[in-house]
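Data deposition worksheet. Section B asks for the primary sequence of the deposited chain exactly as it was used as input, without tags or linkers unless they were present during the calculation. Section C holds the resulting structure in token form. Section D is free text for depositor observations; keep each observation to a single sentence. Incomplete worksheets are returned to the depositor.
Section A, Depositor: J.P.
Section B:
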Amino acid sequence: MIERHAPAPPGSRPPRGGPSGPRGTPAPLPVRPATARFLVLAGVFVCAACGLVYELELVAVASYLTGDSVTQASIVLSVMVFAMGIGSLVAKRLRRLGAAGFGAVETALALAGGSSAMALYAAFAWTGDRGGLWADAPRALLVVFSLTIGLLIGAEVPLLMELIQRVRRQDVGGAVADLFAADYVGALIGGLAFPFLLLPFLGQLTAALVTGTVNAVVGAALVLGLFRRDLTGRARRLLLTAGVLVIALLTTTAVLADDFERAARRALYGQDVRVAVRTGTQEIVLRGDADGRPLDLFLDGRLRVAGGDERRYHEALVHPAMAGPHARVLILGGGDGLAAREVLRFPGVRRVEIVEVDAGLSRLARHDPGLSALNGHAYDDPRVRVTTDDAFRRLRGVPAGAYDVVVSDLPDPGLTAGAKLYSQEFYGLARRVLAPGGRLVVHAGPYAARPRVFHTVESTLRAAGLRTASYRVSGSPGGDWGFLLAGARTPPALRLAPRGPRPATLTPGSLARAGRATADPRGGERPPPSTLVHPRY
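Section C:
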């Protein structure tokens, strides 16, 4: 049976480089043009969703590994947008290949995007502690993946335009509108699916691998199913083989993702990891507390509690603030219960509220045998109440003068996600909830490593109307902690409560020396304060 072909419209041209029908007309599609057009736009939709998931995955993994979300997002977005432009220019040379070019691009994109999260995590786990050039390996790899994925995403658009026009010739404006409508809607779905479905249910590594598998399947199905007659036999075999290999690699890796994560965790934290859980907020790892080893607590890969030093830290944080009225105490952060342990040692404490954003950490501090023993079973004390909330939001809802002591046991101010908790607005709210004669104590990060950050916190407290006294306590070899004690009316005296419990690691003399250790070498000149609209950390 001989198929008949309608004459080509004026100005049209057959695709170059692929088989064609009689007199050079395009090879017929296996479905009606309307159905083919719908399938192409559906492919655009899925590929756009996958592309945005890759982009968000790179930002999320890099932010998790380094903590600086603004810098990582800027690197990923700027490099990817630049690469997309280059990719579009390069793809102009592939337009004559049409379907074959699109199939090759989608296969490569699925492999690069699907493996990106695992490769970044591996680089961080196995090279991040080597120093020298190895220390920059994760960031270099982030740039490489951003560039590669951006190039491939940019190459999609010209090739998809060729496929849409291959199905049915239409004016360029209409074809562009159809293409970008499907692309933007797909990006919306991918952007929403990542934080609300993929990340909580699959995790970072498996989410990227599953997305890459979907990308490879859809790309191969579109090309080999709808445009197979535009390909030579050799091109079909090559695309099919490459697609099967990539899909098999990604699915096998997804199955082994848990084993990989355990191996990387051992490389990162050592062999004695006892608890590793991911809550909706962060990854929590407990190490040690067995065979005499001290317990260490890691939050999102950063050491938060070092068993050998934690008492020195928490006594320095809490005891100077309690040298005054202390019946009502508010602890911001401190979900591990260790600051609460020190507070509860003081006679006269009637109420302690812990505001912790991660309910998973509070549950672990209450029920884990090692951590609950370390915090003295503080959560079992009837005076303790836990509020799962953001510290900023909680302060806005607290009545004025509600607390005698506010303990700010929050992550370091250098982490972008917590910068608002070291802002002038935040400290203004903290000042409002202090009762007359009340005290606020702030952990302001390591003094020796980042003195400017420390003094920025001090400037911010003063801009909020608080008077400050600073002190610095040494920790493990090479480390220290900087603290700021603040009062609303007069500079608070840096002293220990005369009738309070005797700390094991602090004396009045060592506390006085700790205050002298934070003298500003610039003769009193302070950096400007940090605000919500102008963060300076």
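Section D:
Confidence is low (pLDDT under 50) at residues 1-24.
The longest strand covers residues 434-443.
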